[in-house]
Amino acid sequence: MDFEISASTQKFLDELDEFIESTIVPMQSEDDNDRFFDHRREDSRTDWDRDGLPNAEWEALLGKMRRAADDAGFYRHQLPERFGGKGGTNLEMAIVREHLARKGLGLHNDLQNESSIVGNLVTVLMMEKYGSDAQQEEWIPKMLAGEARIGFGLTEPLHGSDATWMETTAVRDGDEWIISGEKYWNTGLHHATHDYIFARTSGEPGDGRGITCFITPTDSPGFSVEEFMWTFNMPTDHAHVKLDEVRVGHDTILGEEGMGLQTAQLFVHENRIRQAASSLGAGLHCIDRAVEWANDRVTFGKRLSTNQAIQFPLAELYTEAEMLRALIHKTAWQLDEGYDHMEITDKVAMCNYRGNRFCCDAADRAMQTCGGEGYNRAMPFEHIYRHHRRYRITEGSEEIQIRKVAGKLFGFAGRAKG
After folding, report:
1. CB burial class (10 A; 0-12, 13-18, 19+) of residue 304?
2. φ, ψ for residue 105 (rounded to 5)?
């Protein structure tokens, strides 16, 4: 493995930087759109009178950004060429995600809702890998055009990371299935047209097999959003969904019947590695800002940065960032080289839980370094902390991630390899 960024990837980063300066920065500056990124950000993004959902003007701006990025040929980068992409690799996407997040808060890359000029199109990748030819032909163009928006309904009120114990069921009735149950933290349901609903179709609680993924229309009779949960980081679009004998056709099954967790693993693995890279970049942004502040700040007649109590914590975090990047790049490269997802699931888990924890630690330390100004909303630290704190729970809590590592290490899930 070559640790140097390839010439083609560096060229892509340079093109992204140029596009940000020529197109995205002016877009962010017009019509006071800076209110979505400065100290007014949460209030400007949130529709407080509509259950705390994202403000319509905020989502319209994000849509405008995505269309511009798509027109410029950046948005679909990771997708195969047949869907307008360039077949971006996992390694390249990790490098891009770190690069964009390290730039800080901006319209070019807003991780609160996974919005970026280079799209994180995981639900499209699920369809591309597991959808039938007919499903791909029907859904992928609609998904990319924004005509179909598909949520991800795995978690339940009583079951989060223990997905094999889910209580949502689907019963076969001729050419249809009848789905009953509930889903929690079902993101994007305020505008989703469909939902990937995971339900047990066979087997017993705790079995890995027997769970099936259904492409479920959100306007189906019996499909209802009970509430949107208010969270640490607003706005919110995380729904509590109830399914009361929702009928769907047999042709709505994504992938193989009873193998739904296989499709879910693609979603979480693709997300986990890129979340880790984004957390690395966001954490480094916090360190960069803290170092800049400490070098400029004069206290007791000398620069703040001359104090080892300021230097050492940031130096340790910077060292961790270097080690973390090496692990992220190696793991992403292994995925590109054809390693089975489950063979290196422990490495993906390491990247994710360490990356997300690193970002939270970096944001907290940067806030402490900058003192009262760090606590000020004019600085980005509180926003970065509140957003990335969620990642230590979602896509599998860090305890579940560590459990995966331990499973490999102690031989409960296959002996660990170096």
Report:
1. buried
2. -70, 135
Containing 400, the helix (H) or strand (E) segment is helix 398-409
**Cis geometry, peptide bond prior to residue 221 (ω within 30 degrees of 0):** no
C-alpha pair distances (Å), 170 with each of 176, 210, 222, 303: 10, 10, 13, 65
CA–CA separation, 403 and 349 (whole Å) = 9
Cβ-based burial of 35 (10 A; exposed 0-12, middle 13-18, buried ≥19): middle
- Residue 401 CA, chain-centre distance (Å), reads 16
Query: Which residues have C-beta within 8 Å of that of residue 70, sequence separation ≥ 6?
Result: 76, 144
Closest to 164 in 3D by CA, of 126, 120, 129, 210? 210
Sequence ranges of the domains in the chain: 7-127, 150-254, 261-409
Domain 150-254 has CATH 3.40.50.720: no
Helix, strand, coil percent content, the chain, rounded in steps of 5? 50, 15, 30
Residue 131 burial (C-beta neighbours within 10 Å; 0-12, 13-18, 19+): buried
CATH 1.10.540: does it fit domain 7-127? yes
Yes or no: say if 179 and 172 are a contact pair by the CB < 8 Å rule: no
pLDDT band at residue 414 using 50, 70 and 90 as cut-offs: low
Residue spans of beta strands (DSSP E) within 75-222: 109-110, 115-116, 150-153, 169-173, 176-187, 194-200, 211-217
User: What digits encode the pLDDT tens for the residues 111-123?
Assistant: 777 899 999 898 8
Three-state secondary-structure class, residue 110: strand
Q: Where are the alpha helices (DSSP H) in 337-380?
A: 345-369, 371-375
Q: From CA 278, how far away is CA 110, in angstroms rounded? A: 10
Do strands 238-249 and 176-187 pair parallel, antiparallel, or not at all (unpaired)? antiparallel
- What pLDDT is recorded for position 417? 46
Percent of the chain surpassing pLDDT 90: 86
Give the whole-angstrom CA distance, residue 33 versus residue 106. 10
Here the tokens at position 319 are 């060292």
Architecture of domain 261-409: Up-down Bundle (1.20)
- Chain centre distance of CA 381: 19
Highest mean pLDDT among 112-126, 202-216, 383-397: 202-216
